[in-house]
Structures are given as C-alpha cells and as structure tokens.
C-alpha cells in the first residue's frame, strides 16, 4: 500500500492541533494548510528519481549536481478547500501545470504524465474517486491534510497504484457543516 502519513515523520502535532481548534483564524488555518502543502510536496518530490544538471558554482567551476526530477507534473487543487495545500505544493513544483477545479470533468480531455490531486480533507473519498475515474495520468499522487482510514482502503481497492500522502489519518468519519466545515473555516464563512 502506497500510503504515507507525515505526522510520524515530522513534529507536526502543534500545527495539527491548531487545525482542529475552533479559535484558529481563517488566516492562520490558511497558513497551516500552505505549510502542509509544502511538506506534502517535498515528500512527493523525494520519491522522484535523481537527474543531473550542470551548474556553475560560486567558485567558477562547473559541476554536475543531482536534482530530483520534477518534470512532467501537474497539480490539481480541488476547490474550495484544496486551494492552499495546492498552493504549498506549487512552491515545491514551480514548473508544474496548475489547475484549480471543482469538478474533474473540467480536465477530462487532458492526459497527464504525473498528477498531484490536492484536497484538504478526504472523508468518504467519493470526490477523490470521481477525480481518479476521470483524470487521465500515468502516475497519481494524492495530497491531503487528513484522510479517513476506511477511505484509504476503499481508494486502494479501486486504484491500487495511487500514492496517498497525508499529514494524518483519522479513525473518525466527520463531515463538517456550517462553521465546522474546513472550507468554510479557510474562507471565514459563517453559516
């Protein structure tokens, strides 16, 4: 199973707790999601093979330096709540194609080499499975702040070669409503 949970690799508990606290402002939550996107992007980049580029160094010599191959990537941010995670990933993949969409049908005519699908919370996994069913790519990477554990199994049943990167997983299935919804919290929408 290609599931990577970052909370056990990095000291993220303070940030994770802030995402769950109701006194966290929209601006603070936005910044945390952006930071999560950078971490998730770095993990995805770290899985890529190394390539060498000849660079001039500060002491006027040329040297072949190893870089992770970031070519061929597209980032798809699922609107609304996946925006800031996608923006953080974009920081790590500055040359990637970049799409912000609500529905996968907006991209069904495009064939991608490697695609990163970013969303803030994956609960039932229905939205993500809709994207995976329509988006055409050779390799799929999922990036999220939290994913419901039962959804991980369901996604891998249908799409066993996908790579899922999450800040944390949850044993609880919770669908936010009103001011508890992550998208509403990110955009300071009170309902």
Notes on the structure:
With 191 residues, the protein is an alpha/beta fold. It has 6 helices and 9 strands. It has helices spanning 13-20, 26-46, 83-92, 126-134, 149-158, 182-186; strands spanning 3-5, 50-56, 62-68, 73-78, 97-101, 111-118, 121-122, 136-148, 163-170. Helix 3 links the parallel strand 4 (73-78) and strand 5 (97-101). It holds the Pfam family UPRTase.
Radius of gyration: 17 Å
Distance between the termini: 39 Å
The tally of beta strands, per DSSP, is: 9
For the biggest sheet, the summary is:
7 strands, parallel
Domain Phosphoribosyltransferase: 12-188
Protein name: Phosphoribosyltransferase domain-containing protein
Organism: Helicobacter cinaedi CCUG 18818 = ATCC BAA-847
InterPro entries: PRTase-like, PRTase_dom
């Amino acid at each position: 199973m290609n599931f990577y949970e970052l909370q056990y690799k990095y000291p993220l508990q303070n940030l994770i707790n802030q995402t769950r606290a109701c006194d966290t402002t929209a601006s603070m939550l936005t910044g945390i999601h952006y930071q999560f996107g950078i971490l998730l992007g770095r993990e995805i980049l770290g899985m890529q093979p190394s390539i060498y580029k000849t660079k001039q160094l500060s002491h006027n010599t040329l040297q072949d330096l190893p870089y992770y191959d970031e070519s061929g990537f597209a980032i798809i941010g699922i609107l609304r709540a996946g925006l800031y995670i996608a923006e953080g990933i974009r920081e790590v993949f500055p040359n990637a194609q970049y799409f912000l969409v609500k529905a996968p049908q907006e991209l069904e005519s495009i064939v991608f080499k490697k695609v990163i699908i970013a969303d803030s919370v994956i609960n039932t996994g229905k939205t993500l499975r809709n994207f995976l069913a329509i988006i055409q790519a050779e390799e799929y990477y999922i990036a999220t702040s939290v994913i419901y554990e039962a959804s991980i199994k369901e996604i891998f049943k249908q799409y066993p070669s996908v790579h899922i990167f999450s800040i944390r997983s949850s044993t609880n299935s919770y669908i936010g409503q009103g001011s508890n919804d992550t998208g509403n919290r990110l955009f300071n929408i009170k309902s």
